[in-house]
Amino acid sequence: MTATPSASPARPPVKTPPSLSGAIAGLGFGCLGSLLFLSFIIGKASDVMTELELLREGEIAEGVILNRHEESGEEGETYWVEYQLGPLLKDKSSPALHRNQAVVDGDTYSSLRPRSKVLIRYLPAAPEINRLDQHQPLIGDLVTLFVIAIGSVGLICVVIQSLQGLHHVILLACRGRQAMAQVVDKWVEDGGFTNNYYVSYRFEADPSLSFVHYVAEDNYTAYRNLSVNDHVMVRFVPDRPEICRLKL
């Protein structure tokens, strides 16, 4: 009777081996990105609060279009109009007028010609805070704020993962032990823009208990230099053998 060959073990989940440079790079990117997104959130939240105040306490007055111009960019044309809060807010002792600029769509731009009248919403207590009444930015500001917040959550996750990776590097350096590992398999997967090179291996994490740990890592150097059944040294944390990396 012919013996049936034993099936190769299923591939374990792939991990990225702990790396000091990778952890520091991820931590720096995540922190800088989070600070940048935080500044965006503060600015956009201020815009939302101003708009809510305009809707709640604002009044409408007549103004006049002073000028308009177009700007060309990679995303197309941007239409600007310059307007002035009109005679209703003139102070005889201080005849300064409140002027502002706004980005509008193409149709609005075509209709707002210089010297044409326009309705302006403003705060009576601070008339320099104003906008074109036909311009309703609240929904757009809230959507932008939500998108920025989602991006910030992603960057915070990068920071957390980088801190975890840095912790693993420290554990390997301070408490790590070395053992002989055997390469079980290696393979390539299409990562979209580039290929990913994986190596799986197993080693005795606790010889007294005959506990063999089976793991796979994303490691191009190991994929290039090692063959299946080769032996190679691995460094791991004894009580947490999942924290490990090949020593090449």
Topology summary:
Layout: E1 14-15, H1 20-57, E2 59-73, E3 76-85, E4 99-104, H2 106-111, E5 117-123, E6 126-132, H3 138-175, E7 177-190, E8 195-206, E9 211-218, H4 220-225, E10 231-237, E11 240-247
Parallel strand pairs: 1-9
Antiparallel strand pairs: 2-3, 2-5, 3-4, 5-6, 7-8, 7-10, 8-9, 10-11
Helix pairs in contact: 1-3
Give an overview of the whole structure.
The N terminus is likely disordered. With 248 residues, this protein is α+β, with helices and mostly antiparallel strands. The protein has a six-stranded mixed β-sheet with strand order 1-9-8-7-10-11. Strands 4-3-2-5-6 form a five-stranded antiparallel β-sheet.
Descriptors:
248 residues; alpha+beta; OB fold (Dihydrolipoamide Acetyltransferase, E2P); six-stranded mixed β-sheet; five-stranded antiparallel β-sheet; 4 helices; 11 strands; 39% strand; elongated; disordered N terminus
Care to give the gist of this entry?
This protein has 248 residues and is of the alpha+beta class. It contains four helices and eleven strands.
Q: What is the CA-atom radius of gyration, in angstroms?
A: 31 Å
What proportion strand? Answer: 35-45%
Strand order of the largest sheet: 1-9-8-7-10-11
Spatial separation of the terminal alpha carbons: 43 Å
The DSSP helix count reads: 4
Tally of extended strands? 11
Number of domains: 2
Q: Low-confidence stretches at least 5 residues in length (pLDDT < 50)?
A: 1-6
Taking the sheet with the most strands, its summary is: 6 strands, mixed
Secondary-structure element series: EHEEEHEEHEEEHEE
